[in-house]
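Structure, all two chains, one model.
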Amino acid sequence: MKRVGLSGNYAVAYAVKMADVDVVAAYPITPQTTIVEKLSEFVANGELEAEYINVESEHSAMSACVGASLTGARVFTATSSQGLAYMHEVLFMASGLRTPIVMANVNRALSAPLNIWNDHSDAMAERDAGWIQLWVTSAQEAFDATLEAFKIAEDVLLPVMVNLDGYILSHTYEPVVLPDESLVREFVPSRPLQNRVSPKFAYSIGVVGPPEAYYEMKYQVVDAIEKSRKKIKDVDKEFGDKFGREYNFVNEYMMEDADYALVTMGALTGTAKAVASGLRKEGEKVGVLSIRCFRPFPKEEIVALLGDLKGVGVVDRAVTPGGPSNPLFADIATTLYEKGRRPLLQSFVAGLGGRDVPVDDFKLMFGLVKDVVKEGKSRPCVYVGLRE
Amino acid sequence: MLEIRWHGRGGQGSVTAAEILATAAINEGKFSQAFAAFGPERRGAPVLAFTRINDNEILLRTQIYEPDVVVVLDHHLSERDDISEGLKKGGILVLNSVYEPERYAKKIPNARRVATVDATGIAIKELGTPVTNTAILGALVKATGIVKLGSVEDVIRERFKTFAEKNIAAVRAAFAQTKIFEREGNM
């Protein structure tokens, strides 16, 4: 074990190397590029024995990953924004064909206007692709989640997307504890997968699923991701036992006796916690709930932790133009409504296209949540930091 | 917590300097973050980078608006940009400049301490190229004492391999040649 300074992207690359992947197929795109750059370096200098497939597009990268995964190989790719969008149709094939691919998605805004900076619109646009989605809040978590992702994917036969915020996490150097490689191998041992394609065991994959079959096969994906909750929990527990860090589906901060909370995902969480900690010192009973596992959505945890609060602000870093609410807010509201729990919910959007979300913006959000509770009625979505 | 803002130009290595400093602090057991305000990367264009150093875990994930320390890798930037914007009262300014520190201290009343060093001259002499990021680290360590000089040297050795010794020579020369102005009295 050693404690080093690494960027979020390099932390992911080290996790992939230590997991001893067999195949990497990727196409460079900012701000993901340094992940696959580092991996190609590992392959070139012999530190990682893997097939590194250079492709001409992200569509081909994901296609190559699906093919490689069907042979039983441990497969990794990484992308961002337009690259993820270009993979769109193949993402559904990856889950439908039950290929346990692990992908790092370094979150970046979608064009237009062209923007290389962070928001969550890329991953939200692939919300329904049948992938498990993990979201991290630090470089250490990026490393840890990537390792957990291989184990989860291969156990439930579903692809896993590890999301880390572009630049804010991907390009920030910070402390990361790297475990011994031998311990990592114990945690994610290479193992033969069932029913994989080989020259000795050839069969057709991805053939037509007519109305008599498609529905059941699609339902299998729905069922598998629902049932993956237990596996995700078990894997995290095992990770905790081995490496001393556990994450669960959500990360709660000062939630025990909170009256008000902000719900966040990814890098917004850190600053939200810092502000909550300051407000606590002023006597405000505030907390932060960060969603680590977005798919499958942590319904039980949400109800248990938010159900009895006075007010909850949900911070989306993506928008659903013309929709009734933005993606994270919609999921929180649906989850609570189903259980008949009605804390006052306030919707926020912040930080689109890399706009910094400073301390004052979080103070404003916490303050507004308290205000709407006093007023007894939430306001339309507040676009924090938007110039009028 | 100590917050540092770096002003440089694309190609001078400000982001690398911010990362080297953070890594040195991490290797000393501290917590640190180094990041940049990334734009379309172009050689010569102004670049901002940031480093936070703390004894405990750092939660903040915002840019730095009120730095304790400002480091300027190209003194021409001090004429173009307001390098002292948001500098905390009693803060520290470190500049790559052939001028005496008093010249800047007069203009920037918030700075308690101003350090200057001819990092360009040192870089040309030691590296044969005007890349000032390693030399300026020597001046920063002299002006702040935030990490040990040896910790910076170790990171450079690990990161640069072939050119490590020349860069370490630049760091040491800058450390030795840095001139410091200290403001007297209460601020």
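The longest helix of chain B spans residues 14-27.
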